[in-house]
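[SOLVED] Need 3D model of a two-part complex

Original post:
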Amino acid sequence: MSNTAIFTALAVGVIVWFLVVSRLTAKPWESQDEKGDVGAIHMAPARIGLWIFMAVVTSLFSLFISAYAMRMHVGAWCHITIPDILWVNSLVLVAASIAMQRARWSADHGSRNGASAALIVGGVLSLAFLAGQFIAWQQVGPTLYFISGSPAIAFFYVLSAVHGLHLIGGLWVLGRTVSRFAAGAELIDLRLSLQLCSVYWHFLLLVWLVVFGVLLFM
Amino acid sequence: MAYVAIADRDAPIHDPQTFFLKYIWSQDHKVIAIQYAIVAISVGLVALVLSGLMRLQLGFPGTFHFIEPNDYYQFITMHGMIMVIYLLTALFLGGFGNYLIPLMVGARDMVFPYMNMLSFWVYLLAVLVLMASFFVPGGPTGAGWTLYPPQAITQGTPGAGPGIILMLVSLGIFIVAFTMGGLNYVTTVLQARCRGMTLMRMPLSVWGIFMATILGLLAFPALLVSAVMMTLDATLGTSFFMPAVMSLGEKLGHNGGSPLLFQHLFWFFGHPEVYIVALPAFGIVSDLLSTHARKNIFGYRMMVWAILAIGGLSFVVWAHHMYVSGMNPYFGFFFATTTLIIAVPTAIKVYNWVLTLWKGDIHLTVPMLFAIGFIFTFIHGGLTGLFLGNVTVDLPLSDTYFVVGHFHMVMGVSPILVVFGAIYHWYPKITGRMWNVTLGKVHFWMTFLGTYAIYLPMHYLGILGVPRRYYALGNTDFIPDSVHSINAAITIAALFVAASVVVFMYNMITSLWKGEKAPPNPWRATTLEWQTPDTPPHHGNWGPKLPVVHRWAYDYSVPGAIEDFIPQNEPVDPKLAGGRDHGKHR
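Solution:
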């Protein structure tokens, strides 16, 4: 739980820092201005929403990993043998993340075709990652997906499933962006969606690398 | 049709016209707030009935034969979970958060209205799943609201089959709903404030809801993690929490799981949950006290900083719920220390509330009565919390009625008093009608005196060593006969308080038709929600132009001012720009 407490302390620290930056020391009873500034962050609401959501997801995975670390010291623990396909899956997700970044760059440079192609490649690679994870599930548990008495394997299923669900959620948003492309939406209107998709994919890649590292080294 | 939260309405927008789009599948934050409130209060009434049944059993054991031991434990569990999660959390954040945030910060709506609407419907689904557990074989779970394993999912515990699964699934759904709503609340506060509404000009109600939402977003994942892992333990035989255990003479397939791990996860959520409920109450009560005492809130900046400090500290006190679960003594020392530290910002708030009243022009309106009542019950509950935060005092008092009395005073009665005060306060704006004052005062005194009659004696029972969670005490040597008399008296007081809820409901419902038409600003308050062009506010809240804020939320009784309040959107006299003006409205 200490990992989680540290994460939470950091998250709260960031919030407090932000608020302090936003003049938390102001004396509102003294200042009466005609047209005061709102002091809001100059970011699109969707971008702020995504960052907050990623903080929630970080909290979720921090707690899962804290639980993993606590559980492994309790008893009846046997380490999981990592299937080789997870290395391939990791590389596929890295490639998907690069493709999403490529889509963002292309949109920034006004290349509609480049953006749509990279977006589709990113989506296909993400689906390939999910398929690879499913194969890994079968390799880890030949007969039963969940084996009582093998908590490391159970953790592997839970962590990869929760990560996969978040990726599926991202694919749903990506699908909507692709459909807007297909409907002929202006590139400038799609730039924010592409930026947010790329940020989310990088985030999910980071989460997966941490999860993979935990499974490998802990 | 949804509004862009922060845009002026230059061109006409077609508001929803059909009943379905206007009141059911609505994206208007005010309608969503009312939907949240109706569902939360409805499910809260179920929990109230359950507590009445529990009290009948405790007050008059052996009299009500239809209450079996299993029923009793199921009543306890469902009462606790419903009250904490599905009533208080949902009502403060989904109800008041939804209604007040856009209006108080001068926005037209939440920034993600569609997701806001989905948040309510997913919440409703969570409630329906939870209620469904009353009708499955074995009934709802009777594991206690903390749902500790291995007991919660082991045969022999009431509702250990489908009941506990439905509870865990319902909690998971609730967390999804909360996350959708929470993203809205935080982003709206950060991004959709109108011109002039700096963070430090926000009313404390918004600050409390804002910080509580952040706590919820970071803490609810702990409950989700524990719910997911316990569901897997119960259904697929994993051993996250389940140790090797014998049940009904047979060894179960689990091995090596850690019940303590569950407790850590649960309380890592559970203690911030106290503040998820308390912080909105702190914020709202600050606004009620200031408005009805016609005086600016004492120490506004300290109040904001205290909210932030309490929010941060609430994540490092969780294990004070686990002193009797077994831990390293140094951990006990650490958590006792942090628990006492969190009392400092909390005490600052209490002092500031009292100092706000000091020499104020106190109007003993019904909302004010509830706000003052809150100060009493919260001080009471807070002080007994200091007892329980210390390891050496907690050990003998743990699992006694002292604990029941403490937490009901601090996070049951206190927030509920604020809920009632807030409903009376904002009811005229929400409905456009006033309520019956006499019935409101009757409701207050019945609630205030009745709840004291319930929970004050419980502290005495706890000091006597009377254990909680017992279906019947029987003829136990260390329990004197007077305890049974006290239990009977507590039950009568509980029924008295339940009757007060009937008075409240009658007043609220009949006033919708019979109440006097409410003026736009009956309390002569400064905050923006009272300055809307229409009462109740129409879809989009503000007419063609968004408001502009020129001052903080607490300009009451400004010396030299024409009236004893200056609304936040009252322009400053240009001749006095940069200095202090006295308002010139109305």
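Edit: Residues 19 and 25 of chain A are 9 Å apart (CA to CA).
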